[in-house]
């Protein structure tokens, strides 16, 4: 006759010590807010058309809606690099 394992949280014998339940694995659901992550929202300005839906002012003959979009690319890269450099040494507990 074989015995099956007891359900989780119950011990097989009353004298056996129970170990504390393990914490669930940490992952995407355990993302913590850091103020520096707000910099990642800066490049999202480029998807708000009311901010750049005009032809004036022009820059070297390019309408505003073109050169503004081209300007957003390096600004987005700089914001992403800044967030990466400022948070790469922060461990899971938020301490450096």
UniProtKB/TrEMBL annotation:
Which residue intervals make up region (Disordered)?
Answer: 1-27
Lineage start? Bacteria, Bacillati, Actinomycetota, Actinomycetes, Pseudonocardiales
The keyword Transmembrane belongs to this UniProt entry's keyword annotation: yes
Q: What's the protein name? A: DUF3311 domain-containing protein
**Record has Membrane as a keyword:** yes
Transmembrane annotation, as ranges: 35-52, 64-83
What domain of life is recorded for the organism? Bacteria
Key words, A-Z? Membrane, Transmembrane, Transmembrane helix
Q: Name one Pfam family in it.
A: DUF3311
Return the Low complexity bias intervals. Answer: 10-20
- Species of origin reads Actinomycetospora chlora
InterPro entries xrefs? DUF3311
């Amino acid at each position: 006759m074989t015995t099956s394992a007891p359900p989780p949280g119950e011990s097989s014998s009353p004298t056996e010590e129970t170990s504390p339940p393990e914490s669930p694995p940490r992952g995407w659901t355990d993302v913590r807010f850091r103020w520096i992550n707000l910099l990642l929202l800066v490049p999202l300005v480029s998807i708000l058309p009311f901010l750049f839906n005009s032809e004036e002012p022009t820059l070297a003959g390019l309408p505003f809606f073109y050169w503004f979009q081209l300007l957003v690319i390096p600004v987005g890269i700089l914001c992403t690099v800044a967030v990466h450099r400022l948070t790469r040494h922060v461990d899971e507990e938020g301490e450096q």
